[in-house]
Amino acid sequence: MAQFYFSQTSVTQEFHAPLSLFELHQQIREELELAFPDSYWVVAEISQVTPDRRKGHCYLNLVDKGDNPRGAIQAQARATIWSSRFQMLGRYFEEKTGQPLKAGLKILFQAQVRFHELYGLSLDIVNIDANYTIGDLARQRQETLKRLEAEGLLTANKELEMPLVPQRLAIVSSATAAGYQDFIHQLEHNSYGYTFDTRLFPATVQGNEAPASIVKAMDLIARYSHLFDAVVIIRGGGSQTDLGCFDDYKVAAAIGNSPLPVITGIGHERDESISDLVAHTRQKTPTAVANYLLEKALAFETEVEGLFDSIYMFAGQQLRLTADKLERQSLKIANLTSNFLQENREQLEHFSKSLLLKPKNFLHNQKLLLSDKEQLIRANTKELLHLRGKELSHLTVCVEGIGQRWLHMKEQDLNKLVHCIETEAKDKHKRSQLSFVKCSDRLQYSAQKKLSADSHRLELLEMRIQANDPEKLLLRGYTLTLLNGRIIKHMGQVKEGDVIETRLQDGRVHSLVVNTDKDE
């Protein structure tokens, strides 16, 4: 036989009306507002940043990995920087740290705890301490350098031998970057006439996707390293924000593991990136890299010309010995040539006269042929223009129809959006009314409670004052002794000859002080 067991909790809950989810969340929000009334300074790592381009807000996902070496997440939360503060905080943070708020950065921020019935728990960020992030970035840079040094990658690329004339170049850059265009123009239009075989491996050179893109390009170059002499990594000038990807460990490790010497021209002079420190050769700009390659080619050419000069000096001596023999042979050849030309001059004149008539006939035939071609082309052109006009008219009708349908769809979407906004506004107004009523009841209850407590205190004070009233003391048999209208409290206030007044319940007595005795 089946048996059923009911806990005490379930039995108790049967006698209470259940809460709706909205009511439960309202209670949670109210309790959190009471428990966390102030703002708090918090340290966390940014895992995701989503700026709202249209409204100007910035939404962040924050995580705390603690000291776990595996990087396991111990806590996470959503945070918001509203548009009114994000414009100021975002610009201030970028100016101080040299890079924007992005994933992977640790920040120290001041936030208020918020709970929304629909969206749950979140943090409203009101301030950010950029100095904390600057220190954390410097620590990360030192840790990256130490890791590269421990793995032997800090100097690995510098130990490779650079070719005397690196002409087969694998380039890592963005195809649309101005620095890449300047580099190619400098190589192709050099005044020495040198030629270079360049191959672009496109990569993103700024933003969060840049490190993975550069590493992918470097891996592809390594697979075909036998086709190149060196690798060139270039990027035009930009802010320190745009160049942060070149401090990434993965990019530096890819350079250190490269089988070819790497030349960097990252386009900034203020600081050296970690990629600059790992590369074989560092130049300040893409144009400087091109000049470096041209200078190496010029130095090699100068050295080769010196070798040729010494060879020419030796060969000159040998040529002078055979000059006499050549001169005698040249005279004999000149005589034979003169006789040959004389014999063939008459024959050439005969051929030239016969050729004068042939070009005239050829030109006449070509004119007739061109005239026929011209008429044919004009006829075909008119027919083609007529067909294209019909096609254009048909396309115009189609575009108008598509445009009207698109506008109708957008109008429907707009109406839906307006309806959603109105519904949300009504819900928000209703929630605000409920919250106002609850706060009003709470305020009224608190005021009544305060008034009741103050009234009770006043009654107690009144009773104490009435209990100490001098008139009542006189009724109980006590007397008051005064000198010159002041109550006498101790013997030092009177002396012999003074006239004192004693007040009784039903009258006054005046006395003359004969003598005074103090109690021992």
- Helix content range of the residues, please? 40-55%
Q: Count of helical segments?
A: 11
User: What fraction strand?
Assistant: 15-25%
The end-to-end distance, rounded to whole angstroms, is 97 Å
Strand arrangement, major sheet: 1-2-3-5-4
Helices and strands, in order, run as: HHEEEHEEHEHEHEHEHEHHHEEEE
The major sheet is characterized as: 5 strands, mixed, barrel
| Mean pLDDT metric | 82
The whole-angstrom Rg is 50 Å
Q: Could you give the count of β-strands?
A: 14
Shape summary: elongated
Enzyme class: hydrolase
Subunit structure: Heterooligomer composed of large and small subunits.
EC number: 3.1.11.6
Protein name: Exodeoxyribonuclease 7 large subunit
From the structure above, extract its key features.
Exonuc_VII_lsu_C; cytoplasm; 520 residues; elongated; alpha/beta; nuclease; EC 3.1.11.6; single chain; disordered N terminus
Description of the structure:
This is Exodeoxyribonuclease 7 large subunit. Keywords: Cytoplasm, Exonuclease, Hydrolase, Nuclease. The structure is a single chain. The protein is of the alpha/beta class. It has helices spanning 8-13, 21-35, 83-97, 130-150, 178-188, 210-223, 249-256, 274-278, 286-355, 357-467, 470-475, and strands at 39-51, 58-64, 75-81, 106-116, 120-129, 168-173, 197-202, 230-234, 262-265, 281-283, 480-483, 486-487, 499-503, 508-512. The strands form three sheets. Strands 1-2-3-5-4 form a five-stranded mixed β-barrel. Strand 8, helix 7 and strand 9 (262-265) form a beta-alpha-beta unit. It is elongated. The relative contact order is 0.05.
